[in-house]
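call fold(seq) -> tokens
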Amino acid sequence: MRLFKKCEDMEKILISACLLGQPVRYDGKSLKQQNTLLDTWTKQNRVVSFCPEVAGGLSTPREAAEIIAIDVSTSHSQAIDGTAVLKAVAHVKTSNEQDVSAEFIKGAQLALKQCQQHNIQFALLSARSPSCGNEKIYDGSFKGQLIDGQGVTAALLSQHGIKVFNQFQLEALAEAIDK
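ret:
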């Protein structure tokens, strides 16, 4: 029995590329997180950096996007979030009305594929994003209003048993990994 795992045997974590300092957000910026846990995981070669929106084919920078119900009557009967996009009862649209749902879904599928290839059980994704938000997302009005819900990638990963955290939940992620 080994008491210590070799670095390559340690569990990998899917992490939003923007949180690692890559300028892949819609506005061409990053959300670089300065955190000793992230630094340690990176040094241990446990980090799989990924941006589902770029992987799905969107450019940087790009128009801001939010999740919007296809049918207004649908929005009253169920939550409009990434799960609704995956069920085709909501779209991801940019502020200039371009439907980018296909790119968001493709990016989510590629994120899931990365998780499956690396046997990843945990993801650290960017809060409030229409792709990566794990608890709250913008409401589709482009007015900065938040609602409960997940982004498309967060929803797909969650459906496959991958536990999704955001940058404000780093300690909770570390605890979950240690269990």
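The two ends are 19 Å apart (CA to CA).
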